[in-house]
């Protein structure tokens, strides 16, 4: 059985006739800067991507665009300006062994063809990794450097652009290696951190014992 009421027509429906259906019009809450500019609500101070450093009274100076500051400072917005955040098309190989050979020699990396991770994905990944590090080694002196290296790699999209992320996060990796080496020397008694009162009798492992030599 069909609908006996017929087709629903939307002609004549507006914010004035149905105010509850259009709260963005009745309460003057524009959804986008373009909508605000079209309806004249004046909720946005600037409709451009970047803004000047001076207040609205000196807008004529800001229009000269001598110095500009970006309006949208979110991670997802800035990432789209630097790289392609969409998933790339994977190459097609004639056989499985050809794809395996390309993968073995580093010519085919499946992770580089996926979509970029969002800010929420990075936050969840870093939070989960941080919990694992704190649970695994709560007294580790280098755990915070390890977490920051992990955060840096994900922020720079190490799966989609591994070469760029490796350059950006090399400092964290170097500091982590030095910290782990210093911690290993301190735990083994080769060196000390605070004062000569913690110095061992033997300066190094094979130092001769002159009392019995």
N- to C-terminal separation? 108 Å
What is the 3D shape? Answer: elongated
Q: SSE order in H/E notation?
A: HHEHEHHHHHH
Report mean pLDDT, rounded to a whole number. Answer: 77
Number of separate strands: 2
Question: What's the helical proportion of residues?
Answer: 40-55%
Number of helices: 9
What is Rg? 30 Å
Oligomeric status? single chain
Summary, kept brief:
The mean pLDDT is 77. 42% of the residues lie in helices and 2% in strands. It is an all-alpha fold and 213 residues long.
Distinctive features:
mainly alpha; two-stranded antiparallel sheet; 213 residues; 2% strand; single chain
Could you characterize what this model shows?
With 213 residues, the chain is mainly α. Helix content is 42%, strand content 2%. Helix 6 (119-136) packs antiparallel against helix 7 (143-155) and helix 7 (143-155) runs antiparallel to helix 9. The radius of gyration is 30 Å and the shape is elongated. The termini are far apart.
Record the SSE blueprint.
Elements (H helix, E strand, L loop, with lengths): L22 H4 L6 H7 L10 E2 L7 H4 L6 E2 L4 H8 L13 H9 L14 H18 L6 H13 L6 H7 L1 H19 L25
Antiparallel strand pairs: 1-2
